[in-house]
Structure formats: C-alpha cells, structure tokens
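[09:14] KT: can someone run the structure on this one? pasting the chain below
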Amino acid sequence: GESDEVEDEIEDEEDEAAPVQRRRRKFVYGKDKYKWCLETPETRGRRSDSLRLHLPAAEGNSLNASNPYESWNVLFTDEMLELILKWTNAEIERHNIDNNANNAEAATFAPLSINELKAFIGLLYYQGVNKNNHLNLTEMWSNEFGSNLYRTVMSEKRF
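[09:31] RB: done, structure tokens below
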C-alpha cells in the first residue's frame, strides 16, 4: 500500500491579477516512491487555444454550393480538370507513339474526355466509400465481387 507519511510542500503560484501567494499542498509517497498529491489542482480561468472548439463551416466559394456536385466543383475547378486532362492526354499520346499502338489498343488508349475524367474520379470516390481498396481491378469488374457501377461507367481496360 501507500506510505502513511504525508509531506507538506509550499508552492508558489503566480497570477497576473493577484500578488504571489503561498499555499501548502499535501503529498503521499507510494511504495515505488511515486509522489501523489492529495488535493486536486486549482483550475485557472483561461483556456488554451488548443482546447477551444472549432466547428467546420463552409467558406468562400463553397458557400454558394447548393448540391454535392457544386461542392465537388469547388474542390476540382474546371481549370484544374482541364490541366489534368491536358497532361493525361499527352501521356496517352506518348504511350501510343512509343508502343506503336494497334487498332485494339487504340480504343483503350484513346484521348480522354472531360466526362471520362470525371467518371474516373467518381469511380475512385466510389471505391473509397465502399472500402474496395483491397480488391484488384479484375475483382472490381467481376460479376461475383464487383459492383455493376464499375462495369456501367467504363471498361476495366479503359479504367
């Protein structure tokens, strides 16, 4: 058990509004020589900034969004999507030139449209929401494990 020895300790407290005060605090030592205070510490009037509650709220352009699609467009602006599309299509073109793509590959590696890009990003969201990140592509598009949504939006090869 704990030692019955109680030690008094004088503690100085500083407060901006009051002069320096001295008060006695009682302590008990455990058998492992850990020092336990017998009184709860006094609470101070100020709260740390890190303890203040900050609730999330819409700001800027997101205040004008009235549906999920408009909210998504705040995150992915048309300019951003056009830039992604430009460099994705440049990479597709480079791949086709480097690999002398035949007609069968040409359909798979055709330039991407803005709608296909949005569909691709949407499938990534869907995969995350449904926690399908453990599935490989074949399983995602399979009739047994996958969702009809994947097969409806685009082919596995196009994805």
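[09:33] KT: thanks! The CA atoms of residues 108 and 147 lie 21 Å apart.
[09:34] RB: yep, looked fine to me
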